[in-house]
Structures are given as C-alpha cells and as structure tokens.
Automatic annotation (TrEMBL):
Segments forming domain Signal transduction histidine kinase internal region: 376-453
Pfam families assigned to the protein according to its UniProt record, in alphabetical order: HATPase_c (PF02518), His_kinase (PF06580)
Protein name per its UniProtKB record: Sensor histidine kinase
Domain Histidine kinase/HSP90-like ATPase: 475-569
Organism the protein comes from: Paenibacillus borealis
Amino acid sequence: MINPYKKYRIDRLFFHSFAVVLIAVIGVTAWTSYSNSSKALVQTTSHYQQQLLDELNNEITTRLVMIEQISLSSSRDSELINFLLNRQDEFERYRRRASVESALANLTYAIPLIQGIDLYMDNPILSEQHNYIQFRNLTDLKKQEGAECLAKSDFCWSKEYNYPSAQGDIPVLSFFRKIVYENDYLGVLKVHIKANEIRKLLAGNSDGSNRIMASSEGQQIIKIGDALDQNDWSQWIDLKSNKSGYVHIPAKDGSRDTLLVYSRMDNSIWTLIEFTSWKQITASSLKLAEWIGLIGIAAVLLVLLLTHFLSKQFTKPIKKLVTAMRLYSVGGDNVELPVDYENEFGYLFSGYRKQNERIEELYLSLERRYEQQRKAEIEALQANINPHFLYNMLDQLNWMAIDAGQDELSRILELMGRMFRIGLSNGNSFITIADELLHIECYLEIQQLRWGEGLEYRIEAASELQELYIPKLTLQPFVENSIVHGFNKQKSGYVSIVMERMEDTLHIVIEDNGAGLKQPEDRSHNRHTGGYGIRNVRERISGYFGESYGIALGEREEGGTRVEISLPLLTDPLTKKD
C-alpha cells in the first residue's frame, strides 16, 4: 500500500489547513466587528459631545467676554483715572476713592458672577478686610495668584484658586487688566469671578462629566470630575489652533484608555475638553467580539481532532531533516535521509543532499585558499625584512661615524633614518602634518650641513593644524626643487613654508628666493609644470580630492618661486593607498 504522504503533493493532502483559515476568518470577523462598531460608537459619542461643548463654550465665552468688556470700560472711567493719577489733596482723594469704590461695588452687586474687585495702585487707601472692593498696593501684585501673566499682556485670566472673603475661602477665577493712561502705567484692575458659577456652566445638564476649561496658552483653568492631568492630555492637542476634534489617548503608566473631545471656537480663547473612558464607550462592541470569539473557540476545538493526526504526518519528515542538519559535519558519518519521498519532501531532501555536496566542495576550496594565504603572508613578512634591514644598516653606519669622530656624518645618517621611517610610514598614504614637517626639517637640516650658513628656512604651522592629515611627501618635491634648481647658481638661499586654515581648506605657501620658474641663462627651460615629483603630487591630489583642490606655481615679484597648495582639512586619514 502506497503511503499518500510520500506520493502526492502536500498542498492537496494537507487540506486540514482549513482549520487555520477558519481561525483567521473568526479572528478577522471578531476584530472587524469590534473595530467598526467601536469606531462608529466613538464617532457618534464625539459628535454629540462636541456639539454640547460648543454650546457650553459659547455660553461661557459670552459670560467671560462680558467681564472683560466691563473691566475695559471701568479701566477707562475718568473718575478712576483721575483717582489713580493722585493729583488731588487728601480730602479730594478720599472723595474720589469713595466714588470709585461705589462704582465698582455697583458692578459687583449688579452682576452675580462677580465675587469682588481689587484695585492695585500706588499709595492706596486701604479698605476693610472683608469688603468686596479692595484697594491694594501695586507692589503686592506679584504675590497674587496668576499675576505673572501680565508680563506678556495687558490683560489675562488666572486659573482657579481660593480667595479669602467674609464667607471664608471661595474658589474664584481672576481677570487682570492693566490701567494705562497716556503711556503711564497707573495700576491693575483685578476682577474675581465665582468659579462655582463657571463650573455649573461647564457641567451643563450632565451628571458625572469629566471636563476641563483651558486657555489658549495651555493653562488649565477649571476642572470638574475625574479628568486627566494636564501632563497627560496637553501633548495630544494644540490649544492655539481654532480647530475642534477628538483624540484617542492610549493607556500609559497606569492611566486608562480615554476619548478626549475638545471644542475650540473662533471667537473664544477657551478650549473645553471632555474625557470619557474608552472602555465605557466600547463595552458593547467588546461584548459582541467576545461572543464571536467563543463561537470560534468551539469550532477550533472540533478542528483540532482532525488536524492532530495530519500534523504528525507533516512534522515527521521535517524532524528527520532537522536531526540530519543538527548532526551534520564535514567529512563525518552523517544521517541518511529517506529516498522514497516523491512529493515536496522528496525535493527538500534532494536539495539538502546537493547542498551538502556543495559544502564539501567549498570546504576543500577554502583549505586550498588558506594554504595560499599562508604562503602570501610568509612572503609579505619576508618582504618586511628589507626596510628593517635598511634601518639597522643606517643605525650601524651612524655608530661607526660616531666612533670615527664624524659628527656631521653621524647627524646626516640619523636624519636619513628619520626620513626613511616617515617616507615608508608602514605603507600608509596619509600622515599627520607634524610628521610631514619633521620629514622636511630633516631634509633641510641635511642641506644646511652641506651649505653651512648659506641656507635659511622658516616653517610656520599652528599646533592644531599639525594634528590634521596630509598625503605623505607632499612638500618634499617643492622644497627639493627650490634647493636643487632654484639655488644652483647661488651661494645662499631662503625657503619659507607657511600653513594656514582658510574656512574649510588647508592653504600651504612655499616660497624661495632662487632663480624662479625660468632660468635667466635659458628662457626655453620652463619649470612651470615641474618635474616628476611635482607631477606626482598633482596627480595624487587630483586623484584623492578631485579638481577642487590642487597646486598653483608662480614667480615672486622680488624674485624666486611661490607655490600655493590647497587641500581639504582631514581629521582622519583616508583609506586609499598609494
């Protein structure tokens, strides 16, 4: 009897995959039902809440704008202005104070929303402690709740706080307005609004609402119910925008999932915000999703009985393959896989055998390459002996010169050793400017031993520039050209090397007082393009950095040659090799 799991395609045999499809369909159905229904509930809830908040915002704005307008008209009252100007005698001043107090008291009695009024001024005539109208010293204003907002505006609102009165501490909001007359700052009118009245307006006809009234500056003015803290909701909305809307605030650090609906109107500086528990809104949607899930679980349990047997037949050849892969070793005794599978498992086993054969071939190839690499490393180590042999020979010659009393020759050999080490630089194409200048100083010192006092030189480079990198042997061809060609008909010479930073460029100037670019005896001999060494430097700069940098040669007006080299500022060496 033929085993069908070794003969036919797995995608035809393994029809129990419908179990996965069933689970996926049930899951998608449950999630889609929950998502769409909860979205519809959230949109409906936010729509009605926003309409209500717009109405409340309009009503609250009307009340508070009335207070602002009353304070504006009071601050411009001529009787109040004349009183604050303080240009009367004491009797007249007391009379005007009584008139101002009476006018402000009438406002308090006429408008139930007003709890009291404070007038801050210079040299006030103090009132009784529990009077609704208080005359206070302007210097005490900074100590009052919310007064700091006057630093940015001529009028502003404070947040809710407790105000001491004859009935005890009463929660109030305060409106501050500066009193200015002909650019003179006379005082501040502070109107106290009963916070409980605003709170009633904010609550509307809803019981258990969680709402906040905030200003356009982001300050939370009044809060009712179990609203979120300002740090939790302020990042989700822009209070300076005139747009209304709603936001889903996810749970974070112990807080709950919340629907935030906010109302912001064009004619209002206030933003009304309402918070509703997300769980409360989506409770019915979640219940529906739970019922769909329970039905799905029952269906899946029935499918498990069928899929258990099929899954065992599916996993058996896979386990064999995994075991063979775990125990595989190159050149060892490996697990033999069955050869009687003709379906996808047969293709998989065949591919695994071919892969092992390829691994064996690659392993042998790597062994050969490893042997070749070892030979190349040995040859490279042998090649490194030559520079070390040269260093050792120069060192031996130096000691021989010292023993023979040849101090100048000893110094030349020592300088040559330094030049060789810098020139080789372990194969690096870039060295620090400090090493490049040391190489040039060694060369110039050797030439000074030859010229005596006839050769002078100057090198200027800031210490921070010497930490930058430069292509090695950049300066050597130009300095050597000055000495060999520029001073060949002279008994003395002068070489100057100056390095400066110009924005993002390293600017190098090399000057000499030699014969210049054209020799006087032979005008046809032109040094403008330079010899091999200079061409080599040109090509290296062009290859490394492009045409933006390079070399310019010219003659000095007083005689001699001037070379200008521009290079980028390199804080790290490039990886290119010569």
